[in-house]
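2024-03-11 09:14:02 INFO worker-7 job=invfold-0412 stage=load source=structure_tokens
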């Protein structure tokens, strides 16, 4: 696998169609052995962290149940290692009818988020049940954020090399999550992609441990920008050094892109259905005409 310098020449961060096929991390990659050990070690650490986290999860679960209708835990299909789907577990922070009209991209100030859910997200407590995914071996503590299948399909079509992040296991926290806010548009996804690929190519134990410690400090509201810099986890310089492609294009929000994709699919399905209907009517007319012409 190329280094980040090779992945991000000038205004591009991945060659065209680089993410068309998902593969495992190549054995010749200099981080292959590290990631193999990392999966085993972080699974053990995840089990160790899950035990003391269970009482906190139980309290938060009860609070969610008491303050809003619906289950306390939220399960959703995400795309993981090598493109394999798995069910991520989180504390529910939205109303149960949040996606009654189909998939929606969460945004800042999202009205679907409950009052308690907003507090849980601010403290990152809604992420604690993902330790169960780590204990199962579906996730690790540090890695790219897992996305939903429909979002992965959408972003693969618009962000070159997006599927390259699937050559490693997804994580609860990561370099892109620490440095950047939640995704809102394609440009923000591309910026996070730069940091995710940088972590894949430069990961080592002390690097990952610093991110775990900083995330833990954020849970207890200690972390800030200065602390991030002191721990040498501020990597905004990469974004300035390797600008994303098409910086001058009009910014498209992810929700607008998702809505447009859904409308296009509905149009295609409607168009196909319409043609099939017309063809069937023509066939029926031909059958009727043929039957009339036949001698009795």
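2024-03-11 09:14:09 INFO worker-7 stage=emit residues=296
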């Amino acid at each position: 696998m190329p280094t980040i310098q090779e992945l991000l020449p000038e205004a591009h961060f991945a060659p065209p169609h680089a993410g068309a096929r998902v593969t495992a991390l190549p054995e010749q990659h200099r981080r292959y052995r590290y990631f193999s050990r990392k999966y085993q070690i972080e699974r053990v650490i995840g089990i160790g962290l899950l035990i003391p986290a269970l009482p906190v999860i139980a309290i938060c679960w009860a609070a969610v149940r008491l303050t809003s209708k619906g289950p306390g835990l939220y399960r959703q299909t995400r795309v993981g290692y090598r493109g394999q789907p798995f069910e991520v577990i989180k504390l529910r922070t939205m109303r149960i009818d949040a996606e009654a009209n189909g998939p929606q991209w969460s945004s800042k100030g999202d009205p679907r988020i409950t009052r308690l859910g907003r507090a849980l997200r601010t403290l990152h407590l809604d992420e604690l049940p993902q330790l169960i995914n780590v204990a199962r071996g579906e996730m690790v503590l540090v890695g790219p954020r897992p996305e939903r299948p429909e979002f992965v399909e959408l972003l693969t079509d618009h962000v070159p090399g997006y599927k390259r992040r699937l050559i490693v296991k997804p994580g609860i926290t990561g370099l892109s999550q620490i440095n950047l806010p939640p995704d809102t548009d394609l440009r923000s996804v591309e910026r996070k992609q730069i940091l995710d690929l940088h972590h894949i190519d430069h990961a080592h134990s002390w690097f990952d441990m610093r991110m775990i410690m900083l995330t833990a400090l954020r849970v207890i509201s200690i972390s800030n920008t200065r602390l991030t810099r002191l721990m040498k986890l501020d990597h905004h310089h990469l974004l300035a050094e390797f600008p994303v492609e098409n910086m001058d294009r009009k910014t498209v929000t992810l929700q607008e892109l998702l809505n447009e994709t859904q409308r296009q699919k509905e149009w295609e399905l409607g168009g196909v259905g319409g043609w099939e209907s017309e063809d069937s009517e023509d066939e029926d007319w031909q059958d009727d005409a043929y039957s009339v012409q036949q001698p009795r």
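2024-03-11 09:14:09 INFO worker-7 stage=report msg="The first strand starts at residue 73 and ends at 79."
2024-03-11 09:14:10 INFO worker-7 job finished
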